[in-house]
Amino acid sequence: MQVDLPIEELEKFHYQEPEPADFDEFWQSTIAAETARPLDVAFTPVVTELQTIDVFDVEFTGYGGARIKGWLLLPARRSGRVPAVVEFLGYGGGRGLPVESLAYASAGFAHAILDTRGQGSTWRAGHTPDPVGSTPAIPGHMTRGLLSRDDYYYRRLYVDAYRFVDVVRSSAEVDTDRLVASGRSQGGALSLVVAGLRSDVTMIVPHVPFLCAFRRALRMTAESPYGEVSRWLAIHRDQAPAAFATLAYFDGVSFARRATCPAAFSVGLRDVVSPPSTVFAAHNAYGGPKEMVVWEFNGHESGGPEDVLRTIRAVRGLP
């Protein structure tokens, strides 16, 4: 079932929407204001039934001074600093329980998992609220504060993701020269964000990244989460220009253009959640060395466990 352009056209596809002229200024000022706050990181050991993995509850100060949760999972048998996988989660998911995230620590890496503020009630539990209110919004997170770049939900989440890299780098257990950011869907987009805003991420492995090429995505799919924006615009008929003006500051394609570290993407050609052309838009614009793994017969699940194995191999292959 073809849901988008043929692969030959996807490989050459470039998203043509212009960026805001002050895109860099907006994010530089946002990051400067938020990094002026102390991180106040707390790593608290947690007793679990796991015998091969040490678990630490993580808490730090994110956007606006909110306290954000996470996990740090470490191989119990380790010698010195270990490479780290910083994982950002897909839409609606939270950090869950440590037993749900065993692969990377079992492979010998530090595994840091950011708990997504205000989510964590769709496919895995979370423990971090989003204490900020919102203008009228469709249920979900895509339209919360949509008419203002300053108030938009993803401004808060992008800063949390940026700060979480600082949290991981502050751990005495982590080899900061081998720090890989990864995630699926929303998590893939967050890995693009941190690669575009930072120069100290060694590599990213974004699987079927969401939040890329917004106008293209809304033309290609009515599936949620993009469908939240479509339904909001169907009610707020005269607000489309203002909404797209906000979304332009949060497009993963723009962050991809600014990234320089190596990246290993994946895409599912039958994906109706993150349409293939939107994933290729980020890949084709990416500023650093890059590769794309194409799963011809898969949708938003893309490579599934194969993507996890690809991430493990990528970390092991770092110099």
Automatic annotation (TrEMBL):
Catalytic residues identified in the record: 185, 271, 300
Top-level lineage group: Bacteria
Domain Acetyl xylan esterase: 3-304
InterPro entries, alphabetized: AB_hydrolase_fold (IPR029058), AXE1_dom (IPR008391), CE7 (IPR039069)
Binding sites annotated in the UniProt record for substrate: 91
A GO biological-process term: polysaccharide metabolic process
GO terms assigned for molecular function: carboxylic ester hydrolase activity
Identification of the protein by name: Cephalosporin-C deacetylase
Source species of the chain: Jiangella alkaliphila
